[in-house]
Amino acid sequence: LAGGAAAVAAAALGLTAAGGAGDPRQALASYLVAFVYWLGIALGALILLGALHAAKARWPVVLRRFLETIPQTLPLFALLFVPIALGLEHVFVWVRPEGLTGEMAHAVHHKHAYLNVPFFLARAAGYFVVWILVAHLLRAWSVRQDQAGGHALTLAQRRLGAGALPFLALTLSFASFDWMMSLDPRFFSTIFGVYWFAGSFLGAFAVLVIAAAATRGLPDHFGHHLNVDHVHSLGKFLLAFTAFWAYIAFSQYMLIWIANVPEEVPWYIVRSKTPWGRVGIFLAVGHFALPFLVLLSRALKRDARKLAVVAAWLLLVHWVDVHWVIMPLVHPEGPSPSWLDVTAFVGVGAAFLAALVFRMRGAATVPVRDPYLEESLRYQPP
To answer: What is the DSSP letter of 373?
Structure first.
């Protein structure tokens, strides 16, 4: 599977690069959408892992090894950031401010101390160092516990998971400011990072649900050890964070609409007064209303296969959400689908899958000597 996914990734990314020779702006924008989408899921899994350790949660121990493995793809994303770094001038208007005029020129000049290429790249390097280090230590200690056993490594993981959360939150927020919000230097929102986090966190749960359903019949994989109550709890998380995404999306829109600040409003005008507004309506229905109503069903949340279908839908609409955030930069007049959107998404996604499968090798699929594994296997909520 890893080899096949790597071959697909190479072919799709090669096509994206070829398309970039003719239309670099479209290619880089499509690539940025795919990069932010898949990276967000890896970061969502890392933050979820840290939160579970901070909460001293015992019920998810059986699925924790897969959750630990998803962020092991972060070194790959550090490599995949290189094309973005090389093509900054094609998507970030602040890279070459000499051609700007009016309000945009003023905004770029005012933010030059922050929005400049050396500092931008240095911040990106810092983000990846933090993310990769935390992800590596949490999994390394967990795998070491497979041999050593005991509570000492559990305590170490809990301390790191809890202590790393503020740093993960800050770096994720600033990465969202750098890689998405700075596409329009006039726009700013104090909760934009939370908006990206909300969709990515939901995406991480969706990937977890799909993987659990796909491996339920395979004795050597974590899904085989999950009971109906595990599946039900994952379904409840999907429901909760579907509502959380909608709450953050509405809060950001409402605050900007009420304030009516000229610097902030244009970002929403282009996404509501043009055909992009139809995409916004689709997100309100498809990203919130429809899955929220479906996930109210207790029976569905206890059926792994049906829940996986809902999770797949949530992953699809999350991509539409990221596309809606980034692509109006290239096509402010309205949606203009491109074959590069497909090749970039498939290329980065296949690379993500190949790295994930590769990193799953060489370790047990569940933390076999975690002191709370037996309790997790017998999980039954009160």
So the answer is: H
Is the separation of the CB atoms in 335 and 327 below 8 Å?
yes
pTM of the full structure: 0.95
Per-residue model confidence as pLDDT tens digits over 316-355: 999 999 999 999 999 999 999 999 999 999 999 999 999 9
Nearest to 371 by CA among 143, 66, 152: 152
Contact by Cβ (8 Å): 206, 314: yes
How far the first Cα of the chain sits from its last, in Å, is 39
> SS in 3 state form for 144-178?
HHHHHCCCHHHHHHHHHHHHHHHHHHHHHHHHHHH
Q: What does the alpha-carbon distance between residue 205 and residue 201 come to, in Å, rounded to a whole number? A: 7
Amino acid occupying residue 41: I
Q: What DSSP character marks residue 362?
A: T
In one-letter notation, the amino acid at residue 13 is: L
Greatest distance between any 2 Cα atoms in the chain: 64
Long-range contacts of 189-197 (CB under 8 A, 24+ apart): 189/252, 189/255, 189/256, 189/264, 191/248, 191/251, 191/252, 191/255, 192/252, 193/169, 194/248, 195/248, 195/249, 195/252, 196/36, 196/40, 196/172, 197/40, 197/43, 197/44, 197/47, 197/169, 197/172, 197/173
What's the sign of the alpha-carbon dihedral 237, 242, 244, 245? positive
